[in-house]
Amino acid sequence: MDSLQAALRVAGSGLSAQSARLRVVSENLANAQSTGATPGADPYRRKTITFENTFDRVAGQDVVAVKQVGEDQSAFQVQQDPGNPAADEKGAVKMPNVNTISEMSDMREANRSYEADLQLIKQSRDLISMTIDLLKGTS
């Protein structure tokens, strides 16, 4: 496979991985205040995403892929809110283990990686077009 086409496949795998990462971050942010439905029930548990290198035989390159979407097992925060339907008999409500500042940072990093992969695809596409134009001119 041509090196430029291989670069396109590698960058495409990066786009796919980063879009999955953005989906997980958006789910975490959307549920940052989602408590349990019943008194004492566990609230939303933060999702995590891990990646792995896999070998793409067509491209002859290592590409990135989602290895697993899991759950963060860190402890829930507990707040006193006796009027909340999720409050236990002591008025304590378990809150999700989502840190919005951390999620926003992760979102910014995923966005930058996504933009870099897009730029790589644009550059590779331009180089392929230039090569085709050059070959057309020599016939």
Description:
With 139 residues, this protein is of the alpha+beta class. It has one domain. Helix content is 47%, strand content 21%. It has two helices and four strands. A two-stranded antiparallel sheet has the order 1-2. The radius of gyration is 22 Å and the shape is elongated. Residues 74-94 are annotated as: Disordered. It is found in: Bacterial flagellum basal body. This is Flagellar basal-body rod protein FlgC. Pfam families: Flg_bb_rod, Flg_bbr_C.
Task: Summarize, please.
47% of the residues lie in helices and 21% in strands. The protein has helices at 3-30, 100-137, and strands at residues 47-56, 61-71, 77-80, 92-95. Helix 1 (3-30) runs antiparallel to helix 2 (100-137).
Descriptors:
single chain; 139 residues; alpha+beta; two-stranded antiparallel ribbon; 2 helices; 4 strands; 47% helix; elongated
- In DSSP terms (H or I, runs of 4 or more residues), the helix count works out at 2
Shape: elongated
| Number of beta-strand segments | 4
Biggest β-sheet description: 2 strands, antiparallel
- The tally of structural domains comes to 1
Percentage beta strand = 15-25%
Strand and helix layout:
Layout: H1 3-30, E1 47-56, E2 61-71, E3 77-80, E4 92-95, H2 100-137
Antiparallel strand pairs: 1-2, 3-4
Helix pairs in contact: 1-2
GO biological process, one term: bacterial-type flagellum-dependent swarming motility
Subcellular location: Bacterial flagellum basal body
InterPro entries: Flag_bb_rod_N, Flg_bb/hook_C_dom, FlgC
